[in-house]
Amino acid sequence: MAEVNVNPTRMEMKKLQSRLATARRGHKLLKDKRDELMKSFLEVVRENKALREKVEAGLSDLSAAMTLAASQSSRKMLTEALMLPKREGTLTVTSQNRMSVTVPRFSFTLPPASALGCLYGFAFTSGELDDAITSLTDLLPDLIKLAETEKTAQMLAEEIEKTRRRVNALEYIMIPRYEAGIRSIKMKLDENERGNTVRLMKVKDLALARERAAKKKSEEE
Asked: What is the domain partition of the chain in residue ranges?
């Protein structure tokens, strides 16, 4: 740590003591915040892990269903069947404050297929394609929720890192610097006090010596 240069006055020491008390309070608050952020982060990570496993399993089933549908219909027929989707969903993005971190919240609404009819005709398509489309529709909310939890985890991780750096800066730089400054001032003030005490004792000895000399001279006269 770099040497601390401060004015060795009591006023300066009081300023450093006040800053030290503030730094210690801030250090405690930031540590508590970091711990709570870690708890919240771990909860999100566990939720994200479960969602990812569910989504990956769903995507695997969807891929198998689409492969089966493709094997029973021509590529051109599948392209024409899926070219013009008739259902249009709405994605609403809001935000939520989570431990002073503004995280996103996604809300997705999709009109039911019965309200708009089928996406394609049944004449040249297979039932496997129907199953694949249904699987994708069922999987879509989990995909959006997964995106939400992953973004939340990322933002919480960034905030944890920022808080950790602040805690370390206070713990290893600011607080030791203030403590070193206070010790330096105390040592200087103690040294000055000892010097004043020595000077006072010398002045007292000189005064006593003069008093004795004046008394002795008076007695001799």
From this structure: 10-168
Q: What is the 3-state secondary structure (H, E, C) of the chain?
A: CCCCCCCCCHHHHHHHHHHHHHHHHHHHHHHHHHHHHHHHHHHHHHHHHHHHHHHHHHHHHHHHHHHHHHHHCCHHHHHHHCCCCCCCCEEEEEEEEECCEEEEEEEEECCCHHHHCCCCCCCCCCHHHHHHHHHHHHHHHHHHHHHHHHHHHHHHHHHHHHHHHHHHHHHHHHHHHHHHHHHHHHHHHHHHHHHHHHHHHHHHHHHHHHHHHHHHHHHHC
Please check whether residue 108 is in contact with residue 90, taking contact to mean a CB–CB distance below 8 angstroms: yes
Query: Which overall architecture, per CATH, does domain 10-168 show?
Result: Orthogonal Bundle (1.10)
Q: Which residues contact 4 (CB under 8 A, 6 or more apart)?
A: 177, 180, 181, 184
Contact between 153 and 112 (Cβ < 8 Å): no
Q: For residue 71, what pLDDT band results from cuts at 50, 70 and 90?
A: confident
Q: List, for residues 123-158, the tens digit of each pLDDT value.
A: 455 667 777 777 888 888 899 999 999 999 999 999
